[in-house]
Design goal:
Hypothetical Protein Pfu-838710-001, alpha+beta, eight-stranded antiparallel β-barrel, 27% helix
């Protein structure tokens, strides 16, 4: 039986007018943006999405559509040092922190090597390049070294290994200067352990992330009106659920909400 959150993002995406990827990149690429994450019950999400995509709005949100598809399978592999430098830097909110990942868009086969850094105002800044071959190969390594040197003035870690694997379904809603990603069916696995074991996201919650160049948007205020507040959560924090020995107090509430059966 399909999970309520998966059904909800499908219904919302099919109910909205479509928008092509080229138009998304023109209207709301947002490689530098402020992100806010929310755990939204499926029934609330359907009402929220219906209001945002209402064609009577001045600038209704539209659903990303590629070759007729409205939701997409994402597979990501995160990379970190043996001591999990990226994980701990984010847990401690260090100024110069970054995430390194390989992303596979399973429906198209496209692969990207991505770096997510924190800007001077606390915004997320994404750097990416198409990936062919290994994410630990020479070309990605040079990209990593050049980016960290030019943006932060620091050296790249010399030894990296896969740390976390994530899989989920995503639908994307887009308006001028705004993008909302809607994720369901999240499964996270420890790349250093038996990948058949992992944690599954709550089946009735949609992970909604608002992305904009500024601070609070209408979508944020709408979610607040439903009584839903931003969650201190990132998918990479799932390592704290997979490895109980890791300190994860900062994300304790978010992890308990995202993975209610993780014990």
């Amino acid at each position: 039986m399909t999970a309520p959150a998966v059904r909800a993002i499908g219904r919302a995406a099919l109910s909205a007018h479509p928008i092509a990827l080229s138009d998304v990149l023109a209207r709301a690429q947002l490689l530098a943006r402020f992100d806010r994450a929310y755990f939204v019950p499926a029934r609330v999400f359907l009402d929220f999405a219906a209001r945002l995509t209402d064609p009577r709005r001045r600038d209704p949100f539209r659903a990303l559509s590629i070759d007729g598809r409205r939701w997409f399978r994402y597979h990501s592999v995160y990379y970190d040092t043996e001591g999990l430098r990226s994980y701990h830097d984010h847990r401690q909110e260090r100024r110069h922190r970054f995430k390194i990942r390989e992303r596979l868009y399973e429906d198209s086969g496209e692969r990207q090597f991505e770096l997510k850094l924190k800007g001077s105002r606390g915004e997320t800044v994404k750097y990416r390049q198409p990936l062919e071959g290994s994410a630990l190969g020479d070309r990605p390594r040079r990209f990593l070294e050049e980016t960290l040197s030019s943006v932060y003035g620091i050296e790249a870690p010399t030894s990296l290994r896969p740390s976390l694997v994530t899989d989920y379904l995503r639908a994307t809603l887009v308006a001028e200067g705004q993008r909302i990603t809607c994720d369901a069916g999240l499964v996270c696995r420890d790349a250093a352990a038996d990948e058949s074991r992992g944690v599954r996201g709550a089946s009735d919650l949609v992970l909604v992330e608002t992305k904009s160049a500024g601070h609070l948007t209408e979508a944020d205020r709408m979610l607040h009106a439903y009584g839903i507040r931003p969650a201190d959560f990132t998918k990479y924090a799932a390592l704290g659920a997979l490895r109980p020995s890791l300190p994860s107090n900062r994300w304790h509430r978010g992890l308990a909400t995202a993975f209610p059966g993780r014990g």
